[in-house]
# Entry
Amino acid sequence: MLGQGTQNIDDRLVTALDSVGIVGTRLRERLVKDLKAKIVLRSGRDAVEVIGASGTGKHKVVEAAHAIACDVLGRSGPLSSFDCGVTAQGQPLHDALVNAIQSAQGGTLVLDRFGTLDGDGRTVATRLIRDRGADALILAVSQKDLAPDSAEPRTATAIRLKPLHEREADVWELVDHFFAATVEDLGSDGCLGFSRQAKGDIAQVVQETSLKSVRRLRDIVRDLLFETLADGPLPLKLTSDDVRPYLERNFGQTAEDRAQRDAALIASQFESVSQRSMVELLAQTHAVSEDLLMRQAQILSEVVDTIDDVPRSYRNIMTKAEDVQRAALWLMTDAATQAEFRRYFGDEGFMRPTKSVAWAFYNRVFKRDT
Amino acid sequence: MEARALANNRPPKVADELTWELVRDEWELLLAIGSGPTSVAVAAAALSAPVATVERRIALLERHGLVRRVDDGYGLVAAFYERREGMSSYLRDLVLRRLESGDAAPIAGVVRADLGSTEALEALLARAEESLYPAVVDAANRPESDKSERFSVFFAAAADCTILRPANGDRFLNELLCVLRAAAGQRSESPSTRSAYLWIAEMRVDPEVAAEIGELFETFISNAPPEEGRGAAGFAIVPSTPARPRAAGVPAQQSPSGSHP
# Structure
């Protein structure tokens, strides 16, 4: 029941991420977990600091958090915002914040530029949002995280957004997304997107320049599209020939850089391959323990060693192994008679070997020539 | 060009980025079409996709020379698709994911790490070009049987390869990965080298034909003379997907392949 409920929450979290347009499989996986652990399961009672560099999607996460607070936690109040940057410049922070929290009753209050608060301001704000009586989901938005050893007060918990260059697995998806959004605006459907090579080249720029902002990537994709469009109709796919002049001009990318990056990627991909041993694979396949399978292999090996009267051919080994296996099964059933052997398999007729099968089995076990 | 290639029993090499991109995009559809004649309806059924969508996709492939009309249907235009750039992307998709997620041992495979110097590897790969690949292509293009399944073939050779033997894990797979990695690395660093090679192919063939292809590779690699040096070569042929009965009327299949000569 709990599992079903959790699955249902996951589905609704995914819907919330869709509704605000958060793209990137890895980021979405992380956010589903974070939003559930830090907002849903805490019924929105703990203030959450959303931390990330400019352009990493903090406000998208805020929108998703508000959507899930409405959908799952049943809140119906508004999404309101309080700019700590402005208030910190001489305004009475305590009173202003108390009012903002009251106004956000039943909804979500976003404390924008929370990171700009100085030591005292941060102390006041943190105390207020921790001790608030009002039922408002508080989301504090900051560009920078506190140092791990900082004595500054913190919100109850935090969602940290990685800069784009640390989201390598999501870059291709984002490029596809921004491409699709742009051509939709253009009403053009003849171009299928960027080639893999072109996306690899763009991803390299993201890495090499330590690009943090998803918005900046969007700008790059749009630049590339419109520059190509300026030369004529869009091709079936935008290939490396279409993107490299721009990347070389604007980011100094070189052919050597590309080759080096590809070589590094090749090496890292091989290093990340996790190998299962054969015994692990077969034990999983047959739903037995590795230990059991290894003991069985050892026994089989000893059975093969007993074959010395005929060649150890596949046929002879299989015949011997099957005979020994049958004899072992007979012993396992503890049967003294063929009838007892049949009864071992159950009371119902369909569970037992037929009499003719049991007779053949009996003859193989006792090596009776019939 | 094509006529000469076919006369030599060797499909032409196609290296442009857009065509390779279409091969990657439509890998499943190309396998479903095979050597043909395959109707749009049969290809759509194989992909569980709407006929109208598949018709548009096939028309695109036809416009770009990847498939051609054969009688009342379509068939693959035989070719070796080569890419030297961006190898990391297709190594990940076409090699490593398949080897990692494999649920069965290879039906054939061998690794040799005593194949000598750069010159010896160049000679070995020249012999492969001359005799091994045409024989494999021949076998792969034989008509299917009702027992046909999809198999992936991985072949790699490199003049400078260190085989590392881990304490645990699948020993053969580890050795093969060492050769694949060395070949990929050397191709990536030196695109014009003739002493490293990587060939990936997927085909739908009868298991006996797959075993025969395995024997071709095995014989070729096993018969290479041992020499001093760090040259290595290896191959594996593995089932790509679980066995499933072929639908009535699905025609003989031909293999798309990606190569890295």
